[in-house]
Amino acid sequence: MRGLLGWGIAVAAAVLVGCATPPPASDPDALADFKAANDPLEPMNRAIFDFNSGLDTVFLRPLAQAYRAAVPQFGRDRVSDFMSNLNSPVQFADDVLQGNMSLAGKTLERFALNSSFGVLGIMDVAKPMGIPPHDSDFGETLGVWGVPQGPYLVLPFFGPSNPRDAIGLGADFVADPLGIYLTNRHMKWLNWTRFGVDAVSQREMYLDFLDDVQRTSLDYYATMRSLYRQRRDALVNAGKHDVEAVRNPGHFDYDTSQ
Amino acid sequence: MTVLLRRAFAALAIFSVLLLGAAAARADQGADADDGMKFLRGLADQALALVNAKDIGDADRAEKFRGLFVASFDIPEIGRFVLGRHWKSASATQQRDFLKAFEDFTVLTWSTRFKDYSGVSFEVDGAAPADDGYWLVDSRILRKAGDPLPLGWRIHRVDGHWRITDILIEGVSMALTQRQDFASAMQANGGKIDDLLSAMHKKIDELRAGK
């Protein structure tokens, strides 16, 4: 409890220190940019982003590189297939909560096929049978329910987020049947191992992409912010079956002649 | 003939003219869609031939890539969009310098990405009209390993030639991402275009050195 209080104070202090100063009302264009970025905690977010990047450089990225060097593509595919199969129960719940019964059915079918014929999920046999995997999480579910992203947030360790997706992350974690089962069986360590392996596996998949983003952007932080927010909007639009909004997000709707 | 009947005929005549016009417009649009898809297919064929060509040197390949890129992307329009509100306040010289640097920057960015595309194939799935004469073309890049990568292209005609103004990857606009990247870089440099230009030149040198 005391620890929690300490955290609360630390976060409150960081929020106070970390507030960005909005441009004056006399500069409406600058103010519009500020609002478009929706990042009132930018100084704090940048500090956490730098912290995460440092951690990534010395820890996660080298691990992911070693993993790529040691394990061939076939083996890595087995690991990621296994990991995403473990996530199926949570994904199923989110599909249902989004009211997307056809996707929920697909998740269920995939789970049944992959857990059995796919040998406990290490082989995604459902994909070649025409049932490809999809993303769904509770942050997206909240989005489908109409909750906006809110201001941009960078979470320690987890990276780009926002209040909605941070709550989603927590909810998915708490509601995960496998996590609950392992905790009850006093095998919490196994659950943490699972998240560790998942982190390395996912980081490996993003190695080239993130290297490329860093190499080709002027401001890595701002580029990641833009990518994250657009991608999350696209996922929510897909969850709402708004095919047109996914195809044409309408980014050019605002005046380009300026 | 009664007045009523005459009116009815007139209405019918107008209606059929409108209907014919709409049909013609639709046929026109259909032709436009086919034409836009043909443009992207042709571009992909040329680009993939360039990536897979074994008998040309790196310098020659880079030169040809630039030619292809500059001829198919509407770099002035993308540049204006990316610079956003700062475009207007820039002087004519700054605008020219920016577009030149932006061209170098974009060509280098995509040519390094493009190197990984040997052995892929490209499929165009369809085209739909967007606003103001723009078209959105759906396509997929089929890789040897991994799932197909869906790519959307925002294109329009400039002086009768198709030009690309944006690439959309799973709902994420490359032009918007770059606009927000540049806006932030600009702000960090005190909102001055000349400082943005030197940041761009530094990046261009890095990209050149990296290849």
Tally of DSSP helical segments of chain A:
13
The quaternary structure here is heterodimer
Q: Which bin fits the share of residues in helices of chain B? A: 55-70%
CATH architecture of chain B: Roll
Residue ranges of chain B: pLDDT <50 for 5 or more in a row? none
- Write the element-wise H/E pattern of chain B from the N-terminal end onward: HHHHHEEEEEHH
**SS field, number of helical segments of chain B:** 7
Based on CA atoms alone, the radius of gyration of chain A comes out at 20 Å
Please list the strands of the largest sheet of chain A in the order they lie side by side. 1-2
Low-pLDDT segments of chain A: 254-258
Cα-to-Cα separation, first versus last residue of chain B: 82 Å
Strand order of the largest sheet of chain B: 1-2-3-4-5
Task: Tell me the greatest interface.
Answer: A-B, 37 and 48 residues
Number of beta-strand segments of chain B: 5
How much beta of chain B, percentage-wise?
15-25%
Brief summary of the model shown:
The complex is a heterodimer of chains A (258) and B (211). With 258 residues, chain A is mainly α. Chain A contains 13 helices and two strands, in the order H-H-H-H-H-H-H-E-E-H-H-H-H-H-H.
Structure description:
Chain A has 258 residues and is an all-alpha fold. Chain A contains 13 helices and two strands. In chain A, strands 1-2 form a two-stranded antiparallel ribbon. Chain B has a single domain (3-208), classed as Roll (Nuclear Transport Factor 2, Chain: A), CATH 3.10.450. Helix content of chain B is 64%, strand content 18%. Chain B has helices spanning 3-52, 58-72, 75-83, 86-89, 92-114, 174-188, 193-210; strands spanning 121-129, 135-142, 149-158, 161-169, 172-173. Chain B has a five-stranded antiparallel sheet with strand order 1-2-3-4-5. The radius of gyration of chain B is 23 Å and the shape is globular. The chains are: A mainly alpha (258), B alpha+beta (211). The A-B interface holds A 29-30, 32-33, 36-37, 73, 132, 208, 212, 215-219, 221-223, 225-227, 230-231, 233-235, 237-238, 246-249, 251-252, 256-258 and B 77, 80-81, 84-85, 87-88, 109, 112-113, 116, 128, 130-131, 134, 136, 138, 145, 147, 152, 154, 165-166, 168, 170-173, 175-178, 180-185, 187-188, 191, 196, 199-200, 203, 206-207, 210.
